[in-house]
C-alpha cells in the first residue's frame, strides 16, 4: 500500500469544530448583556446591526435610561471652541468612535429667521457660546431683546428663550445650562447692573417660566469675566474680578440665592479656574508658569469658611516635552476633572488626579474650549437615519 493510501484515512478523521454559541433567547438576559457594553458611540450601533430584535432592544427608551444610569459619567466626545466667528466641534475619540465634525454643526435655518422672533438662528457674531453641560450647548444672542439658545446636538433640537424684561436692558450677561432630569433642562442667568450689583434667575423647561429675580450688591467694583461656569454640588459658580482681588460668584440652584467668596491673595500669574475639590467642596486651581496650586474652601474651628491650600502640582513633564515659558488655562472638563492648557505646541487636557496629559488640538490661539460629554443612545442620535452610518463607516 502506498504512503498516500495509508495517510488518507487519517485525513478523514478530522476533529469536528464545536457548534457556534447560540444567542440568548431571553430578552431580559440579552438586555443585561447589552447593558454592559462600553458607553462609546460605536457600541450600540454595532449591536443594532446584529438583528432587528437587537435593534429593538437598544432603541427602547427604558433601556437607554438604564444604559446611561449604569455607566454613570458619560464619555467625553470632544470640544466646542469659541473663536468669535463660529463654534466648531473638535472630536476627541479615535476610530471607530470618532464623531464627524459636521455631525455636531449647527443646522442652518431655511430663511435664517425664526417666525415671530427678531433674531437669527445661525451661529455668527450675534450668537456666542457661553456654556456646555449634560449634552446641551448654550448660546447667548445680542439684543435687545436678548435671547438664549439651548441646543441638543444629538437630538438636533433647539429651544429659544427670551430674557426676563426686567433684565434685558442690562449690559453684561453670563449663563449656564444643566439637565437635572433627562426630560427637562434649566438655565441659570447672571446679569450685571452697573459696577457693584448683579442679579440672577433660573429658567425651568418643566414650567416654561423664569423664576424670581434675586440680586446682590457689593461694596467693591465688579469686573465680570467671560467664561463658562462650573457646577459644584448644586451650585453654579463663575469667576469674578472684585477689585483688587478675584472672587467666585455662587448661585444656589435650590434657594436661587447669590453669594460671593473672595479668593486669597495669590502670587505670580493669575491663571485661575474654578474646580471641585476632592471632597466635592468648592475649589480653584491657580497656575503660574508650569506650577499649579489647588485650593479648597472648608470650615475652620469656628465654622467659618476659609481657603486652604490642598496640594501643589508640577507640570514638569508637560514643560520638558513641549517647550514654552508658561501655560494658559482655556477650559475645564467637569466629567473628567481635567483642565485644558494652552501651550506653544497646542492644547492639552491635563487630568488633575493623575497629572497625565493628552494633546487634543494643534490650535495655538487663546480660544475658550467647552467640553462636550454625552452618552449616545439608540434612537436619539447616531442610530437615526444616516447618522449611525457615519459612525459605522469609521470602523
TrEMBL record:
F-box protein AT5G49610-like beta-propeller domain ranges (all copies): 128-329
Domain of life: Eukaryota
InterPro entries (UniProt xref): AT5G49610-like_b-prop, F-box-like_dom_sf, F-box_dom
PANTHER family for this protein: F-BOX DOMAIN-CONTAINING PROTEIN, OS07G0120400 PROTEIN
Region (Disordered): 1-27
Protein name (record): F-box domain-containing protein
F-box domain sequence ranges: 26-63
Pfam family for this entry, one: Beta-prop_AT5G49610-like
Amino acid at each position: 500500500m502506498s504512503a498516500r493510501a495509508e495517510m488518507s484515512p487519517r485525513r478523514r478523521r478530522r476533529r469536528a469544530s464545536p457548534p457556534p454559541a447560540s444567542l440568548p433567547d431571553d430578552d431580559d438576559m440579552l438586555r443585561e448583556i447589552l447593558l454592559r457594553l462600553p458607553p462609546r458611540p460605536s457600541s450600540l450601533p454595532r449591536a443594532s446591526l446584529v438583528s432587528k430584535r437587537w435593534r429593538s432592544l437598544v432603541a427602547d427608551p427604558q433601556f437607554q435610561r438604564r444604559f446611561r444610569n449604569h455607566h454613570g459619567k458619560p464619555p467625553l466626545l470632544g470640544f466646542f471652541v469659541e473663536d468669535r466667528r463660529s463654534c466648531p466641534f473638535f472630536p476627541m475619540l479615535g476610530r471607530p468612535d470618532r464623531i464627524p465634525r459636521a455631525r455636531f454643526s449647527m443646522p442652518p435655518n431655511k430663511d435664517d429667521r425664526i417666525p415671530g422672533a427678531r433674531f437669527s438662528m445661525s451661529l455668527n457674531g450675534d450668537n456666542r457660546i457661553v456654556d456646555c453641560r449634560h449634552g446641551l450647548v448654550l448660546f447667548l444672542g445680542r439684543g435687545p431683546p436678548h435671547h438664549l439658545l439651548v441646543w441638543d446636538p444629538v437630538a438636533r433640537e433647539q429651544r429659544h428663550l427670551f430674557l426676563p424684561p426686567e433684565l434685558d436692558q442690562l449690559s453684561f450677561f453670563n449663563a449656564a445650562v444643566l439637565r437635572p432630569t433627562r426630560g427637562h433642562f434649566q438655565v441659570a442667568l447672571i446679569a450685571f447692573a452697573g459696577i457693584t450689583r448683579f442679579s440672577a434667575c433660573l429658567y425651568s423647561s418643566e414650567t416654561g417660566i423664569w423664576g424670581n429675580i434675586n440680586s446682590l450688591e457689593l461694596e467693591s467694583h465688579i469686573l465680570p469675566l467671560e467664561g463658562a461656569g462650573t457646577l459644584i454640588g448644586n451650585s453654579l459658580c463663575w469667576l469674578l474680578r472684585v477689585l483688587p482681588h478675584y472672587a467666585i460668584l455662587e448661585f444656589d440652584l435650590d434657594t436661587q440665592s447669590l453669594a460671593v467668596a473672595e479668593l486669597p491673595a495669590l502670587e505670580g500669574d493669575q491663571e485661575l479656574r474654578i474646580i471641585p475639590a476632592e471632597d466635592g467642596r468648592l475649589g480653584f486651581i491657580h497656575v503660574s508658569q508650569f506650577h499649579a496650586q489647588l485650593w479648597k474652601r472648608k470650615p475652620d474651628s469656628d465654622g467659618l469658611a476659609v481657603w486652604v491650600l490642598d496640594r501643589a502640582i508640577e507640570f514638569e513633564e508637560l514643560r520638558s516635552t513641549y517647550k514654552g515659558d508658561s501655560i494658559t488655562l482655556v477650559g475645564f472638563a467637569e466629567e473628567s476633572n481635567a483642565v485644558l492648557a494652552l501651550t506653544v505646541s497646542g492644547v492639552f487636557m491635563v487630568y488633575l488626579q493623575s497629572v497625565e496629559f493628552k494633546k487634543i488640538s494643534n490650535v495655538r490661539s487663546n480660544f475658550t474650549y467647552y467640553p462636550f460629554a454625552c452618552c449616545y443612545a439608540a434612537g436619539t442620535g447616531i442610530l437615526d437615519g444616516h447618522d449611525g452610518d457615519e459612525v459605522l463607516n469609521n470602523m
